[in-house]
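For the sake of transparency, this paper describes our internal protein records without simplification. The tokens are whole numbers drawn from a learned vocabulary of local backbone shapes. One such record is reproduced below, unchanged from the form in which we store it.

. . .
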Amino acid sequence: MPRSTSCFTPRLLAAACLLAITATACQPKTAGDAGKSAKPIVIGLSLDTVREERWQRDRDEFVKHAKELGAEVRVQVANNDDARQNAQCENLLTQGVDVLVVAPHNSESAATIVQAAHKAGVPVVAYDRLIKNCDVDLYLSFDNVQVGRLQAGYAVKQVPKGRYQLIAGAPTDNNAHLFRQGQLEVLDPYVKRGDITIVGDQWATDWQPVEALKIMENALTRNANKIDAVVVSNDGLAGGAIQALAEQKLTGKVVVTGQDAELSACQRVLAGTQSMTVYKSIRALARRGAEVAILLARKQPVPDATGKIANGFKDIPAILIAPVAVDKANMDSTVVADGFHSAAELASGAPPK
């Protein structure tokens, strides 16, 4: 799958977007424009879920920054339901939003959202998750293939030879397939040499931790507890897998990967029950999302949207942010230094709010 050849730093793109937005705001208005300019941009933000900590952060940062830029945001949450998300987006279009930002539950069926929006003359941003087989205007996300590479790369450094269980996310989420692509790019050479044996490769419906718990319990039973590493695609699923390992007194003895740098996961990393997580600057993603949504609503070009990713219909303009692998060694210089979690929160061991 074609990917962007480079990733952009949050500061560079934020500065470029803010310059473009500010420049437009400072342009002289004619008498005919006065009434139009008084109306703020209205952004429809459609999220699949806010169950995980990271999606709550996306919502809050997006709304906060959009308001700072003078825009109004109307948020809808689909609770992992395709039909509900489609209906909610139709409702947002009926309300007269100027742009839709969609984190789809189902990357395929969300194409109807884009089609309906374009009929209404409304541009659509695929936020964090790609919308496939349609003429979506922009894809804004992290380099998700690289996320998978970081996860598997960390595992093979710790366990270059051994038995691996793979636990992927929701098969309806295109990102889950990109994570798996990156993981297999790293693992395949080891498998071909016979150094690594993949004893199981399963997908967790709707990213549910209970699904990962069941998958891991079954994997341990099938393999008489002889599993050396578990390449897990996010922190919620990692928590489920670790619960199964704990039941067999194997926590800390088996490498377990994750993603999202959730507070509970970072606490597990420091405690040694989870080996690593992948930190993605949600603040940078959400702020960019608000900025590019405003530019698209104003029918302006988006600075640095020079990457491309194929969605089955065409190569979509893309902005991809680089992720970072995090373990005990660099927790302070990444997650803490960015203010994502404080040292006090990490040390408390208290569950996240």
About this structure: Residues 10-142+281-322 form a domain with the Rossmann fold fold (CATH 3.40.50.2300). Confidence is low (pLDDT under 50) at residues 1-10, 22-36. The chain has two domains: 10-142+281-322, 144-259.
